[in-house]
Amino acid sequence: MWPASVPDPAAPAGLRPTRSGYTLGMPVDVHAEVLSNTRLSPDYNVLALAAPEIARQAKPGQFVMIKTRLGLEPLLRRPFSVFELLRGADGQLTGITILNKRIGTGTGQLYDLVAGDRVDVLGPLGRPFTPVAGSSASANSGAFTGTGSGAGAAVSSHAASVAPTPGAPDAEGAAAPAAWLVAGGVGLAPFATMAESLLAAGVETTLFYGARRAQDLYYADWFADRGVTVVTATEDGSAGARGFVTAPLAAAFAARTAGQGAGSAIAGSAIAGSATANSAITGSALADSAHTGTARAGTGTAVESGVPAAAALSIYVCGPTPMMRAVSDLAAQHGCDAEVSLEQTMGCGLGGCYSCVVRVREDGRTPHFVRSCVAGPIFRGRDIVWEELAH
Amino acid sequence: MTLEHPTRPDLTARLGSLTLANPFIAASGCFGYGVEYANTVDLSTLGGVCVKGLFLAEREGHPPPRIVETPAGMINAIGLQGIGVHRFVHERLPELRALGATVFVNICGNNIDEYAEIARILSDHEGVHAIELNISCPNIKEGGIQFGCSLHGTHDVVSAVRKVTTLPVMPKLTPNVTDVASFARAAEEAGADAVSLVNTFLALAIDVETRKPKISNVLGGLSGPAIRPIAVRMVYECRKAVKIPIIGMGGITSISDALEFVIAGADAVQVGTANFVDPFIWGKLIDGLRDYMTRHDVAHFTDLIGTLDIPGAARKAPACTNS
């Protein structure tokens, strides 16, 4: 995706751009013991895997390739986002979890595993989310645990139109950067590690979380307990706003554009699991609104007239393709970029097979295929040629 | 070194003038341009790296879905997405050289002149050790397979490339013909230094619910353990037909699988699909070969080639019917 000879301005902190994609140290293959298998429903489970070597290296948005069973059926590994990082009593990283949805042979095998079983887990792989520009994350790598970085390396491509220049001193009293995570169903998977990183870096974090029904909104409390503002939507209206999660998201954008912060816009929104009737965007202002609607001093932010120059807002999306496309479009309408986590059929996860390609537009180039395993799975939404994606 | 094994087995493999550290070569199309794997394997420890098929020009390849899993295998129709030979020699080859890889370059042309042109360009650059002629990709309309399915075509491509390079030249043969051995013979007569076999088997997988093909190109190439016994048989047949070295491949996932090809007559092997499943397979193959040779008291890898022992019936005619 990036020519090796040209330093990649968008390279997330700590990454070494190569001709073939991004590498983060050495991916390892761990014959990992299943520590637990928590079945959330007849379709969903969370598998805890003893893989400290992977946990120590993993960055939010990265994935692992899992051989769901020894032998030839199925033959290939399956890609999964790293869901949670597991820590022992001493705080040391001990493993990861994956959020699995049973849809076929391989995912069915992962659903059926029991503690003590073992699976081969290869990772971490792929390009992670770009840290929030202007946060302490981008300045000192706090958002991406354990990764040394320079501010320059963290210049965010995804928020080019709204992000302040990393390293630029914040104006006194300037709003904190904010991040909106937008998840649909099993698309929640990459956001647990992302939320922890964002919160650790002092980023005001909101999760917009959509599912079919209230009982499908797994782990919403997990996010809320850690300080994430959770806004839910269900297709049947059994929790949060009725319909797709793009509705409350659109309302939040509208509120933001109207000069109110995201935090204000979502006041009173439901934490999943405690479904309320008023969980949709209320539009009411909160005192601690992060977004004042004023441009940050000294950021050099270029803002189209009519769109308030809020503090840095970073948007990250994972879910069904139509939803990611809708969110990406919505963000663009409001002068923001969104980073999306694509899930294409992968053969190897390492750039060898060329099966997981997605067509992207890059500045000055004809739209072309890149491998989502090494150029992604995280992409800038507006780079994707959405009309060619399946689903 | 231990007292029990005062000398380590010699894993060196030979393909004519080319000497390899061991017989394990990463198969074209399954290892990117090699550099993708620099973080998982020391490329200099492999017998060779056969890079993804290159045309003269860049190619986009087929739209996804490009692969589908099938029992003990997979069907692919990538469509030879690639950066073209010019970008390869400037952008990838230097890194491969720096990594110490023994580089096989798989090439594909729209016509014979293009094969020769690519071979010429490669010959002008340090770091290319051999040229594998892709005359067997089942997934693209132009070029390739039209030569691989014709004895004259095979002969003509090999001789055209032979004339323009001193690098070892080895066509990669398709299994989608009645008699692979005759193609190996045509290649040998045209001056090939070796033959690679087999490429994938033309295949089709259908989603019965939608009645649609499972990959965008409709047809693709089947690889993986599912094809291995057929591929071993084809190596066996070619071994009897030609004297030039044979690089065997098709569904190798273990040292035992690899040894089947060697015992059937392969001088080296390529591993493709298994690398997708286990990118760390290379060390396991090398260790496995060393263990095998130690257990069987074989000093030199080359002593294993073509050592198939058919009890009492070496002179039996090959069975061609089910009688």
Give, in spatial order, the strands making up the sheet with the most strands of chain B.
Answer: 9-8-7-4-3-16-15-10
Task: Using the alpha-carbon principal axes, give the shape of chain B.
Answer: globular
Helix content of chain A: 10-25%
Radius of gyration of chain A: 20 Å
Distance between the termini of chain A: 24 Å
Q: Structural class of the helix and strand makeup of chain B?
A: alpha/beta
Number of strands of chain A: 18
Let me know the average pLDDT of chain A: 77
| H/E series of chain B | EEEEEEHEHEHHEHEEEEEHEHEHH
Determine the structural class of chain A based on helices, strands and strand pairing.
alpha/beta
Fold topology:
The complex is a heterodimer of chains A (391) and B (323).
Chain A: E1 16-18, E2 21-23, E3 28-39, E4 44-50, H1 52-57, E5 63-67, E6 78-81, E7 85-87, E8 93-101, H2 105-112, E9 118-125, H3 136-140, E10 178-184, H4 191-200, E11 204-211, H5 220-225, E12 229-234, E13 241-242, H6 246-257, H7 262-265, E14 313-318, H8 321-333, E15 338-341, E16 357-360, E17 368-371, E18 378-380
Parallel strand pairs in A: 10-11, 10-14, 11-12, 12-13, 14-15
Antiparallel strand pairs in A: 1-2, 3-4, 3-9, 4-8, 5-6, 5-9, 7-8, 15-18, 16-17
Helix pairs in contact in A: 6-8
Chain B: E1 13-15, E2 18-20, E3 24-26, E4 48-54, E5 67-70, E6 73-76, H1 84-98, E7 103-107, H2 112-123, E8 128-134, H3 145-148, H4 151-164, E9 169-172, H5 180-189, E10 195-197, E11 201-204, E12 206-207, E13 212-213, E14 219-223, H6 228-241, E15 246-249, H7 255-264, E16 268-271, H8 273-277, H9 281-295
Helix pairs in contact in B: 2-4, 4-5, 5-6, 6-7, 7-9
